[in-house]
């Protein structure tokens, strides 16, 4: 008997989380073993409340609304639409799944809900199984980051322990790029592209003034400095000194002030990039200087922000120079107008592969990829990360000379509650730059330009905020 597939999105939204969702729906519609395709609104919370959208029917309806079949021959495809056309989609399908893939944030909605340990209190998991049975769910795909993979892992293990024929597969997502078991995370490449491009634009802002000027820009990344590391791509192309401070290395106020003074001797304009979660040698978050640590999310993580402002005050107390601090904040994670081609295509294919894994019965796995080394660097090479299992589905389109990836699967148990940080060997000896290894890792991830669709001069998006019955 055919089973239904349920997919949900969780955690912080990204510019390409819907590319993975698009890949899931696109592939699931082709699978004979799958009957209905449901989407849970607002992550696992929507599973508990049974707020489901019948995605196959909804997609077909929206497809006709956005791209009428009678006008198919005149539909203008985006570059990603052309990519899907080559994959066997009709022109109408290519246009629709392309628009969904390049819609930022989470089209199904998201949540941050921490489930209890089923060994201590199985009631939540019993309730989830009851919902799955009521809706004939045989496959559950969860798109998310570290905490979401923890949820998927617990649920997959519980289904197995209960002898239930339900396959749970994780689909990676996080701009923080800190998931283990994968070379780089969907969402990171587009955020890195936004950061690097925006810093170069801010550099132009600095250069228009004939005065000494220090611009401080704070990036997201609670415990890992991957996003801030993207500033090294700007420094490589820029024309003023860049000082880059990552949370992987302790911060010294005195050394920072010396770094700024030295940089100002070389140039009247200086760019400072800092991770929001940077700490001093005592392990204290800089953003807590002068105030309490603040609120925490559902998983107990500190809600960071404000390190840039602290650095601004450190400069002003030591030297008389125009200084401005800004936070990229939410803008860096959902910039649909400036997407990495590499990121969109890989995210889509990771979603499609997750469906393949589910149909094959690969319970407790996460759809993954690893870099095929040929002149470019990989995280695996520098960190000693283990080879992934089940390498299978070939290579993504090239994103630069020598760059290609192999799609694979890794056990969720190796991903859940783990955190991947930048190797210390990638940080320059001066403490405020990155080595060539880091740049070689980063460069291919931002290549190629994709963008959300524009209609009448403004972005056009797709979402699934509607309900349906069983």
UniProtKB/TrEMBL annotation:
Pathway: Carbohydrate degradation; glycolysis; D-glyceraldehyde 3-phosphate and glycerone phosphate from D-glucose: step 3/4
Known catalytic reactions: beta-D-fructose 6-phosphate + diphosphate = beta-D-fructose 1,6-bisphosphate + phosphate + H(+)
Residue span of region Disordered: 371-397
Assigned GO CC terms: cytoplasm
Residues annotated as site: Important for catalytic activity: 173
EC main group: transferase
Notes on activation and inhibition: Non-allosteric.
Enzyme Commission code(s) on record: 2.7.1.90
Family that this chain belongs to: Belongs to the phosphofructokinase type A (PFKA) family. PPi-dependent PFK group II subfamily. Clade 'B2' sub-subfamily.
Record's protein name: Pyrophosphate--fructose 6-phosphate 1-phosphotransferase
Gene transcribed to yield this protein: pfp
